[in-house]
Write a structure and sequence with these properties.
Layout: E1 2-3, E2 6-22, E3 25-39, E4 42-48, H1 61-76, E5 80-81, H2 87-91, H3 98-115, H4 120-123, E6 130-132, E7 135-137, H5 143-156, E8 160-164, H6 171-180, E9 185-189, H7 199-205, E10 213-214, H8 222-231, E11 236-238, H9 245-254, E12 259-262, H10 270-283, E13 286-289, H11 296-305, E14 329-330, E15 341-343, E16 353-354, H12 356-362, E17 363-369
Parallel strand pairs: 7-8, 8-9, 9-10, 10-11, 11-12, 12-13
Antiparallel strand pairs: 1-5, 2-3, 2-17, 3-4, 6-15, 14-16
Helix pairs in contact: 1-3, 5-6, 9-10
The protein binds magnesium ion.
Length: 370
């Protein structure tokens, strides 16, 4: 049993090595809220990686901060917890806002794992010491620049490459990379930028032997995704659509996809992740662990979750150097080149240490509640 004694919110902004270009804009740094939950002289860490604009999900850093400080933190402070699963009971009155909830909930899981002196992955019987990973290439201005990016990542040892696609930037980039690398594990992510009128285009993608097409249609288009999937040989993967276990139930029932990209923040934390993992395992739905450009805190949590047995496809968890010259945690993560994996931390809890000097260096705001 532990009592939540105090909770700190550290707003940080960490510069990226290279900017990331998405369908919705360009990001130069990773801004997030790091949540520190304290009990018995120990500190558990979680991360809210919501973006600053409501383009990827409706949550933003501003809404997450509002929900954390006005509702979630007051409901948890001073409470006695017997297991990390207890956290969600205190959050049931708050509708939605999974990223705000997940940041706090993951920090409590870290605390419990530290108290038991075991790595986080052992709290839920993870089965891997090294996790297969891939890398995402951001939208490029032209094909030569895209090819140069992919060449660089393949040379680094990444065996699964994900290309971002938007209308007008689909067929040609895929063709270029597939011709150059006929056997590469290649997939594309559309971030909801297409609709069913693009069906002929998606049919043209079938011969390219893509590992999957991720989130082609709008977030709540479960039915439309099922219509598209029925027309294609290439597996569809839902990402943004999956915000809860019940979304997964819907996707399974409607056959909206064959693969789920699980992001722990977007589904509200580790307890919901475990529920989704079980649902997918029972339904024969493949899964992999996605990323939100997290700092070392969120990336460590992703690595632990990707040790779960049904996470059979490479995750979007790249080496630290893909994102930051200087991360907020030590040690940094490195790619094991021979098999495109990252080694899961073995120290108690999330297994990485937040560096106080960097926390101060990158911090833009700080709040403490006790
Ligand atoms: Mg995605």
């Amino acid at each position: 049993m532990l009592k939540i004694e105090s909770i700190e919110l550290h707003h940080v902004s960490i510069p990226f090595v290279n900017s990331f270009k998405f369908a919705s804009g360009t990001k130069l740094d990773h801004s997030c809220i790091l949540v520190a939950v304290k009990s018995n002289g120990l500190t558990g860490w979680g991360e809210c990686p919501a973006f600053e604009e409501p383009y990827y999900t409706y949550e933003t850093l501003t809404t997450a901060n509002y929900i954390l400080t006005n509702f979630l933190i007051p409901s948890l402070l001073g409470k006695n917890l017997y297991s990390p699963q207890d956290v969600m009971r205190y959050f049931t009155k708050v509708r939605g806002h999974p990223m705000a909830k997940a940041a706090l909930e993951c920090a409590v899981w870290d605390l419990f794992a530290q108290i038991q002196r075991i790595p986080l992955s052992q709290m839920f019987s993870g089965v891997r010491e090294r996790v297969p990973v891939g890398v995402t290439v951001s939208l490029e201005k032209d094909i030569p620049r895209l090819v140069a990016q992919v060449d660089q990542f393949v040379a680094q040892g990444y065996k699964r490459i994900k290309l971002k696609i938007i209308p007008g930037w689909e067929l040609k980039p895929i063709q270029a990379i597939r011709e150059r690398y006929p056997n590469l594990m290649l997939m594309v992510d559309a971030n909801s930028s297409f609709n069913l009128h693009h069906l002929p285009l998606f049919k043209e993608l079938d011969p390219f032997n893509l590992l999957m097409i991720e989130q082609p249609l709008t977030v709540d288009d479960f039915y439309e995704h099922s219509l598209l999937q029925a027309e294609l040989k290439t597996p569809l993967c839902l990402d943004e659509s999956i915000e809860s276990p019940s979304d997964v139930v819907t996707a399974i029932a409607l056959k909206s996809c064959q693969i789920i990209n699980l992001k722990v923040s977007r589904v509200g934390g580790i307890t919901n992740t475990l529920a989704i993992h079980q649902l997918c395992e029972q339904a024969g739905m493949k899964m992999w662990c996605g990323g939100m450009l997290e700092s070392g805190v969120g990336r460590a949590i992703n690595l632990h979750l990707a040790t779960l047995p049904n996470f059979t496809l490479p995750g979007d968890i790249s080496a630290t150097e893909r994102y930051f010259a200087e991360d907020i945690t030590e040690p940094h993560f490195y790619l094991n080149q021979q098999n495109s994996t990252i080694t899961v931390p073995t120290l108690p809890g999330i297994g990485v240490q937040v560096q106080k000097d960097r926390l101060h260096k990158f911090r833009t705001n700080y709040q403490c509640y006790s």
